[in-house]
TrEMBL record:
<feature type="signal peptide">
    <location>
        <begin position="1"/>
        <end position="25"/>
    </location>
</feature>
<keyword id="KW-0201">Cytochrome c-type biogenesis</keyword>
<dbReference type="InterPro" id="IPR050553">
    <property type="entry name" value="Thioredoxin_ResA/DsbE_sf"/>
</dbReference>
<dbReference type="GO" id="GO:0015036">
    <property type="term" value="F:disulfide oxidoreductase activity"/>
</dbReference>
<keyword id="KW-0732">Signal</keyword>
<keyword id="KW-0676">Redox-active center</keyword>
<dbReference type="InterPro" id="IPR036249">
    <property type="entry name" value="Thioredoxin-like_sf"/>
</dbReference>
<dbReference type="InterPro" id="IPR013766">
    <property type="entry name" value="Thioredoxin_domain"/>
</dbReference>
<dbReference type="InterPro" id="IPR013740">
    <property type="entry name" value="Redoxin"/>
</dbReference>
<protein>
    <submittedName>
        <fullName>Peroxiredoxin</fullName>
    </submittedName>
</protein>
<feature type="domain" description="Thioredoxin">
    <location>
        <begin position="19"/>
        <end position="171"/>
    </location>
</feature>
<dbReference type="GO" id="GO:0017004">
    <property type="term" value="P:cytochrome complex assembly"/>
</dbReference>
<dbReference type="InterPro" id="IPR017937">
    <property type="entry name" value="Thioredoxin_CS"/>
</dbReference>
<dbReference type="Pfam" id="PF08534">
    <property type="entry name" value="Redoxin"/>
</dbReference>
<dbReference type="GO" id="GO:0030313">
    <property type="term" value="C:cell envelope"/>
</dbReference>
Amino acid sequence: MVVSRTGRFIALACLGWALSAPGRAAETAAPSTTSLYATELKNLQDQPQTLEAYKGKVSVVYFWATWCAPCQIETPKLVRLYDKFKDKGVVVIGIALDNADKVRAFTKKMGVAYPTVYGGTSAIQIGRDLGNDVGAVPFTVILDRDGKVVETIKGDTPDGKLEAILAPLAG
């Protein structure tokens, strides 16, 4: 993939923003899924919901923002990943760190069919609880059926990595 100079600049700016985010922990404990399943966020219809319904599924939890250049590149890949694995007990859950109108427009434009919620500080805290100590976006967490964190990825995900992780978990 060829990334323009502007794209690289935006990606570096996003990373710089993430690294300068306040509230970074000096040490992180083992990632906890407690807040992921319990915190109430809003879905794209502005209805409050928790992610409790996704317990027991292999989950790809994707923290993103509409203004994030790597997120704009990865979203179509996640749409394809969801289509490939949704019938095997795998769910992709998008957690947007953005406002509702922008998230709705972006997901419609990108054809996102996987569950998406949005939230401000609550969503950021969930990411921190799952090991995102620098506030990076994108930030991806893979959970097994027992809700155990299998993998966390800060920044963009190398092509094929998620499929390699999900294949044995979905089987």
